Amino acid sequence: MSDLLFEPFALGDLHLKNRIVMSSLSRCRADNPGLVPNESMVEYYSQRAEAGLILTEGSWVNPESIGFFNVPAIYTEEQVAGWRKITDAVHAKGGKIFFQAGHLGAVSHPDHLGGELPAGPSAINPQEMAFTNNGFQTTVTPREMTLEDIRQTVADYAKASANARRAGFDGFEIHGAYLYLIPEFFNSATNQRTDAYGGSPENRSRFLLEIVAACVAEWGPKKVAVKLSPGVISGVVTANQDSVTTYAHLVNRLNDFDLAFVHGWGFPNQPRGTAAAEFNDIAGFLRKHYRGTVMVSGGYSQQSGEALLADGTVDLVAFGTSFVANPDLVNRMRHGYPLTAPRVDYFYQGGLEGYLDYAEYHAEALEATA
């Protein structure tokens, strides 16, 4: 097996020490009313600084974007200061870290929003489950965003990106995956607008492209990234030929920006149906339409990641749950050490257990006690 995962990579002016990326992982440890990153999060991220690049958990750009409990945000000064401690700790260990900006849109719930309805491109219930402090709740019919809502949300993304710069991040990833606010605009099942943000592929892509333009204006070249999941099937959304046309247009338009990368999330070789067969191979779909750096995540192994790097389909591979239980994942992969299985019950439960108590692998110590 080749060792392409361990080769350094130039991401614009950033020198990544390897091509292994820590994917975004919601961990729900910001257990304070202000959703401020805390000291346990400083240790959690710095433990994993051997990754070529760390992507933070998807975090809120404004109060209206909240859709999961105890997830940090970046719209107050206290939050910016909390994130600064994390970026300083990661940088002290030679790591690089991008902030991931999220907005759950219609997949949120009034429990997160002081009883107010969540917002979406159209007043259509996505038929999902929302995870709140009161447990799982069925989603509700959202209010349709006005043009002023859209304008303000674009401005909030721009402010969040500026805050991320002040917090010391190396870049800014826009979460446009799964069935959250941004991809709700892409699909005709959740977007039935008749104005400039609905109908055609051009119009359904407009919201994200405006956000990208605003964030690139704050950051400059090779610092803003976009995460997409073209093949997602969930709730009322089914990947269909409309989706193929829209995503092909969208990804081609992203070539107009000097982005850090486009990040495709999707489980490899998972059948998606004939209407969206193009999405069976997310990596290949992105490479077909995008000329810049391509990253993938979603169930890839060390072997499958190496294969994609070897044939030039992707440039970076992100790993998710394996980083939860293996803070030293890069070292374990490099030497072929066994991986610790994560304790799923502690993914979102708060506290230090299942968060900071996973040990690094020390072969010499184990051999000495054998």
The proportion of strand residues reads 15-25%
Question: Which CATH top level class fits?
Answer: Alpha Beta
H-E order: EEEHEEHEEEEEHEHHEHEHEHEHHH
Share of helix among residues?
25-40%
Largest sheet composition: 8 strands, parallel, barrel
Give the CATH superfamily. Aldolase class I
- Poorly predicted ranges: 365-370
What gyration radius follows from the Cα positions, in whole Å? Answer: 20 Å
CATH architecture: Alpha-Beta Barrel
Query: Number of domains in the coordinates?
Result: 1
CATH topology: TIM Barrel
- Spatial strand arrangement across the major sheet: 3-4-6-11-12-13-14-15
Outline the structure in words.
The protein has 370 residues and is of the alpha/beta class. It has one domain (4-369): Aldolase class I (TIM Barrel, Alpha-Beta Barrel), CATH 3.20.20.70. Helices cover 32% and strands 15% of the residues. It contains eleven helices and 15 strands. It has an eight-stranded parallel β-barrel, surrounded by four helices. The protein has a two-stranded antiparallel ribbon with strand order 1-2. It has a two-stranded parallel ribbon with strand order 7-10. Strand 12, helix 6 and strand 13 (261-265) form a beta-alpha-beta unit. Helix 1 (39-47) runs parallel beside helix 2 (77-92), helix 3 (147-166) runs parallel beside helix 5 (201-219) and helix 5 packs parallel to helix 6. The two termini are 29 Å apart. The model is unreliable at 365-370 (pLDDT under 50).
